């Protein structure tokens, strides 16, 4: 089992920045792909960003150039730095760890961007 504990998030004005953190414990390994998803009210959960242990990153089209994902292997922690936030970024953000077909989720954290 892998446990993911998220921190960060909150309320910010449009154009502002926030950083999310996700600390992994348990059976986490360097082989897990770590990432962030989000789900806005009435919408499906979507991938925001992901990172492999080798540092390869992937981003959803809507956040490219504004969000940055990073990973601290020594701390088993993944971060999401969000800049240039827009009201449409408002959602519950979930940390994710994936290895093969097995996925683990964090508890979710609300990010609200006011206009």
Taking pLDDT < 50 over at least 5 consecutive residues as the criterion, the unreliable ranges are none
Q: Give me the number of helical elements.
A: 0
Helix content: under 10%
Major sheet description: 7 strands, mixed
Strand content: over 45%
Category by helix and strand content = mainly beta
Q: Rounded to an integer, what's the Rg over CA atoms?
A: 13 Å
Total strand segments: 11
- 3D shape: globular
The succession of helices and strands, N to C, reads EEEEEEEEEEE
Question: How would you sum up this structure, described in words?
Answer:
There is one protein chain. With 115 residues, the protein is an all-beta fold. The chain is built from no helices and 11 strands. The protein has strands at residues 2-8, 10-13, 18-26, 33-39, 46-51, 57-59, 67-72, 77-82, 91-99, 102-105, 109-114. The strands form 2 sheets. Strands 2, 4, 5, 6, 9, 10 and 11 form a 7-stranded mixed β-sheet that branches. A hairpin with a 6-residue loop joins strand 4 (33-39) and strand 5 (46-51). The chain is globular and about 40 Å long.
